Amino acid sequence: MRSSTNVHAATDHWQSKTPSFLNNTLLQSGLIFAFAFLLYANTLMHGFVLDDAIVITDNMFTQQGIKGIGGILSNDTFFGFFKVEGKEALVTGGRYRPMTLIIFAFLYQFSTSPFLFHFFTVLLFALTCVVLYRTLLLLLSPPLSLAQQRGELSTSGLSQAGPMVAWLSTVLFAAHPIHTEVVANIKGCDEILTLLGCLSALYFTLKAWDRQEKKWALAAGISFFIACLSKENAAAFVVLIPLALWFFRSLKQSPTVKGGPSVLAASLPIFVAFIAFFVLRGAILHWRFGGEPMELMNNPFLKLEGNQWVKFTPAERLATIFYTLGKYIQLLIVPHPLTHDYYPRQIGIMSFGNPMVLFSLALYGFMGYWAVKGTLQRAPSAYGVLLYLLPLGIVSNLVFPIGTNMGERFAFMPSVGFCFLAALFMSKYLGKNRTLVLGLFGAVIFLFSIKTFVRNFAWESNEKLFMTDAAVSINSAKLQNACGGVLFDRATKEKDLEKQRVLCMEAIPHLNQAIKIYPNYKDAYISRGGAHYVLKEFPEAIADYRRAVQLSPDDPKLKTYLALALRDGGKYYGEQKADLNNAFKCFNESWELNPKDPETARLMGVGYGINGKHAEAIVWFTKAVEAAPNEAGFLWDLGLAYSASGNLAKGEELRKKALELDPTIAQRRGGGGR
Fold first, then answer.
1. Whole-angstrom Cα distance, residue 634 to residue 621?
2. CATH 1.10.443.10 fits 476-595, yes or no
3. CA 276/CA 177 separation, integer angstroms
């Protein structure tokens, strides 16, 4: 007899009174599916948001539809977005998650509308909730005849309570607001499909164990292989599936039960599927696994000392990780406030003097002790702890760096363990006060559902998401840059000059904050330089673009931006400040960066003409004409320069050519002035 029977003895007297409607598996499956789907129905009309660009809208393989599947299968997941060798390795170890991209390619073949993608995502989530319910039901309530035959019925301790525990777990999982990032964001399909594949593999493994039929074992292996191809954190179930058999099926610690297979033998399809994935991934990604980038947006465990970025000390790193682990617990219990962004420094540099860090360390230490002790006793609650800890461990930064401190999407798979534990806890006290416990559960589900439904609206568009979450993630350099960037993008498309100015003025404080947090943030300098340029604050624009070029000297686009700012900055110094010295400095530097820009050459000619240096003016106006021979204005200016130098015939000839190209040029240039 298992010791866990004593743990749940308090529930024995009410287990026979489980509401009959919970025993209708088909009905409950339908209700759970409908509940999960309706919770996210308000996302169906949303657009592509956030990382959808990486896997759909800006991914060259996905956009090829079915023809792009070969490229998806043979490359790193990020290669189709970056389109350049090497950039996909910015994240540690690379990523090989082709399954969801293959699905997206199929969908893109039929429609480019985000509605189809959102509809698929919500359907997939609803299906996952049903599979979770059916898997937990089978896990906790093995077929009666088989249980009696093997003598396992008394070992489960929850066989009669199984329908209630499975139902409570699943409804809590479906309603939990922490899942909005996964379901409202199409890219989250990788998390959903991974969990769906893992749960299906567990379900089929249980079926294979119970029925001793090879077809279920084959289905388990295929399901788990699909899960691995969706996202690497499926690896947690390589351990969790055999443990499920240990906790809920095998009677003794011997390798066989009543002539049945051993736990390891029954789990063989899972092991084979994982090894096959591991080899395939290694071959495609050339066996990249290690290394940490020294760039803050891809490695949060860096700090600035002097003018150099260095790694956290081991104590700082571990303390920061345990702070985030505590944050996951807080968000699972009280999911507020929610945000999609926990990039540096939304999570600060922590020490073991922080009370939250110490509390988290003690809590996880207790869970670890509970898991070990409970595993030896085969207590269901210990399996719930492991169902939480093992998937979370993979994305905790303890095993390998994941590129950010934390993310609510990373709680998607671990939350199954949390919900299972919550259901076990409730089941323990249902017999004592069913009305109170179910009433509290109902209140939680109602509040969670409202929170989920409302939170979904933030995911309507990038701008809405960024502006909503910026109020929470005020210390995230990435999000503050995103807010500034989206406002600046709006400004560049705005035709009303006053509205354009207002948008740029709103963008600059966000970009200032991003640069304050991360002084080497190239993208923030680019956007802020652009905002200053629109506001005609040329010295500031030049300084920002110059800093961006310093951070990325091989990017020709940035040099073009700087050249443009210098050109117009020189014009500003000359026309507004009457400072020809600074004007010429700007023009010369602009020409060095972009020696084919006719407008820069023209302005140099104007400057020399004002100074009475007609020969130099002719040289620069000639360069302008050579760069744009069909531009009437440049010919007109060159003609004026020749006339001013005393060569009236040449000047008249050039002005006639200009009039042939544009009969209005004389009127527009005031008859002769520059």
1. 7
2. no
3. 35
